[in-house]
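Notebook, p. 212. Picked up where the previous page left off. The plan for this session was modest: take the two constructs that came back from the sequencing core last week, fold each one, and keep the raw output in the notebook itself so nobody has to go hunting through shared drives later. Recording the first one now, exactly as returned: residue sequence, then the structure token string.
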Amino acid sequence: MARRILWTALVLAPLTIIVDLVAHPSKVVLFALSAVALVPLAWLIGEATEQTAEHTGARIGALLNASFGNAPEVIIALFAIADALPNVVRGSLAGSVISNLLLVLGAALVFGTDARIDLKGLLVQVGLVLCAVAVLLIPSVPGWHGNPERHSLVVLSVGPAAFLLVVYLVITTLGVRAQARPTEAPRQGTWPLRVAISALGAATVATAFVSEILVHSLKEFADAVGLTQFFISIVIVAIVGNAAEHGGAVVIARRGKMKLATDIAVSSSAQVGLFVVPVVLLLSLAFTHPLTLSFRPIELITMGIAAVSSAAVFYNGWARRWEGALLVAIYGVMVIAFVLTPDRS
């Protein structure tokens, strides 16, 4: 019954786009409609990822999920850069790293089952996140004094961005080459690989369009509830941009595939820090106001805490529900801190 409802609910995505283009309702209505439309899209990405993993193995399946799931994040960031909203871009990117390591991973553990996980692979991904935080200090520290958007910081950001991108591509290539091919044939009823990947692509495109509508309606929604731009970017936009990972990891965890679910959450966080951030920076050079990687102290500190917390939870090689609840609780504390943090002056 639940699957039938989710399949039927996929119609909400094109409906949201049509309503936005034709009816032009209030932004508050668009925010609610697009947020609901993202739920079945996230489920579809999770379903297609699981089907793909039957052919490729968990590691490559998780990489595909992270790649397709982070595509909306890049699109949202570029829209924000075009609108001269650099703080929203940096906040949403930092929030994506944090929410994947705490909220997504935590929810996957809570709704999944106690099971062994790929400790070595997860520790490598968390290590990459910590590496990204350390490297981002290079352009961030000078930005804590003076104008964080000055041209000299744009130039200073290019080197760290290129370094992070190269590190990610090298580590990912080595990881994929080391991935053994599945030893078992795909189970009966598995989608053909071409169908699964096509579904991933279609769901990602739809997610990008719906996410854009939601982001453009955030300001009016925020004004109505009195939220800061910082909170909107690091919590709301980050969760919206990563709806695929949130839903996909939980759906897969509920089916007992904890290795794939945990790999999705952690690898997606590493991909944001070492791939999405550099790509967004390099693409921003084509805009009138390029992005700088001058993150605020609270953004870097919370990213570091998220990485260390997740590593501490799965360091024993097991995924347990109470540990997932702990990660979600840590995320809740951070959200409170974000609410109390004013916008960047």
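Okay, moving on. Second construct, recorded in the same format:
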Amino acid sequence: MGMTTETDSFGRAVDYLRLSVTDRCNERCLYCMPEGYQGWERRPDHLTAAEIVRLVRVAAALGFRKFRLTGGEPLVRRDLLEIAREMKKIPGVETIGLSTNGLRLAALAGELHAAGVRTVNVSLDALDPQIYKRITGGEVAKVLDGIRAAVAAGFERVKLNCVLMRGVNESELWPLVLFAAEHGLPLRLIELMPLTTTEVLTEKNFLPCGEARQLLAQKDELIPQPDCRIGHGPARYFLLRRTGALVGFIGAMTNLHFCENCNKMRLTADGKIRPCLGNHVEVDLRAALRRGANDEELKALMETALRLKPLEHQFRHQYQPGRPMTAIGG
């Protein structure tokens, strides 16, 4: 098997695989999990730790270098540390990241670092406890403890993610900037996408990145950082002159060039490889695994998924979610 990076049908280098290890979560975020969702109760079909590690090995041989453990909430999976430790041993795996809501991070940060996780993204949609609870159903104090523990554990990078929601958390943007500056952490502001139900995204609740920038510009000067690349995502970064905060904007809805350099695919918790978050195309790897497919056959299926990766997402074209974000993987 070759060790060079694969390219898709449009010449984009694709070397980043996001691995959803569970669709379970200990929060119920407005933009991720529809009210009443209990998909896991109907679909007890998650990949085992051994199956995940095997697919990572195949992906690494195919040229994937960057991997991120996601969910749902990955830290509710009891064998996550085992998965990370085994991934770390695989030739070609250059970096393992984690996306988490942070509720269990304080207890696990040290063990995650020791297991080989090198970067952590923490969802933080508000600092005000009431607003945070409205958005997520959780307790922000536990998340802040988790962020501090992650910083103390010595990860190469800890980033904060905030989903923009008009009428919900725009008042929290400046406090989040100050918190990020205080702790020396990059803050990324992410446009709302239609990932639970179509109704989750409306003109009333959509807050575009451009408007968020204007809100912050009332408090501080935003200096573009066109050469700033932190991690493997599509954020466009600005340095705030007075506070020193570094703020990235992820505008999947308003940035018409958003998909031009997309470098990722996703593996869902139930074993489907999904070339694009905003497209329903999936290739079933679990079925192949469980019928005894060899590594070359699994590699061929991954290459098929790569060829099916579309030029751009469909979010701007009346996209109808087939299953919610928590089932696809963050």
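Notes on construct two before I forget. Residues 49-62 form the longest helix (14 residues).
Flagging for discussion at group meeting.
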